[in-house]
Amino acid sequence: MNNILKKICEDKNKEIAILKNKCSLSTLKKLISDKIEKRNFKNAVIESASNKNNFIIGEIKKASPSAGQIIKDYDPLDIAKTYENAGVGAISILTESNFFNGEIDHLSLIKKNTGIPILRKDFIIDEYQIYESKVYQADIILLIISVLSDDQLRRFLHISKELNLDVIIETHDEEEIQRAMKLGCPIIGINNRNLKNLKTNVKNSANLFASITKDFTVIAESGIKSVSDIKMYNRLGIFNFLIGESILRSNDYTTFIKKLLNNG
């Protein structure tokens, strides 16, 4: 790790230490309710790939290190409702606060007011954050393979299974894909953005897709801006996408989402 990714993780470690002082891990675990509704994400993306139907995880974020401020008048609940009505299959919520201006409270707020699966998008480097994700009613978490050891990944996957959380293992290059497949987690995300330098190549998912065996379901992430991008992926056999910035920068979320879902 270097550059921006290293800085984010260093700050995240400090943030988690403060959180643990306020609320210990044992106390956090006690806050997990049996009544928390779990919405099934894993089966939905596997079926979409199998049936060759486009499935979009619509991402909500106020800002990012690469784009700066994306939305001035930020109303995550309004965006979430618009996304759901437009046909996205799940909603990704950026909860990282220092670099993305996210808030973890938005997970439970949006969960209570929508009916589709909710992904917590953050830089998860400590088991504390997995329990925290459950408390705030996420259905899915993202584990970024480049910031975790194989031992950490296995432990975090075990905890996620115990908590009934679906997991996306995020990769960016060939080596990370090989590591991901050894873990056996059925959903692998390929990030088109290099988190170390924030450069984006929309063909990264296309180039790496052939390296992944058919028993895994792939999600192409980041930099997807047009129907032609979706068509390129569909030709290869990719039907699941995580899309945020291009939707948020469009003049009409609903029209843009429907175009992407229906190939124009």
Structure explained in plain terms:
It is globular and about 50 Å long. By secondary structure, it is of the alpha/beta class. Helix 4 (76-86) crosses helix 5 (105-113) and helix 4 (76-86) runs parallel beside helix 12. The longest helix has 20 residues, at 3-22. The model has no long low-confidence stretch (mean pLDDT 95). Strands 1-4-5-6-7-8-9-10 form an eight-stranded parallel β-barrel, surrounded by six helices. Strand 4, helix 5 (105-113) and strand 5 form a beta-alpha-beta unit. It has helices at 3-22, 25-30, 42-51, 76-86, 105-113, 127-135, 150-162, 174-183, 204-209, 227-236, 245-248, 253-261, and strands at 55-60, 63-64, 68-69, 90-94, 118-121, 140-144, 166-171, 187-191, 217-221, 240-243. It is built from twelve helices and ten strands.
**Biggest sheet record:** 8 strands, parallel, barrel
Q: Average pLDDT value?
A: 95
The named CATH superfamily: Aldolase class I
Order of helices and strands: HHHEEEHEHEHEHEHEHEHEHH
What structural class should be given to the helix and strand makeup? alpha/beta
Which ranges are low-confidence, i.e. pLDDT below 50, for 5 or more consecutive residues? none
Per DSSP, the total helix count is: 12
- CATH topology: the name is TIM Barrel
The CATH class is Alpha Beta
Roughly what percent helix? 40-55%
CATH architecture: Alpha-Beta Barrel
**Share in β-strands:** 15-25%
Calculate Rg over CA atoms: 17 Å
**Strands ordered across the widest β-sheet:** 1-4-5-6-7-8-9-10
The number of E-state strands comes to 10
The total tally of domains equals 1
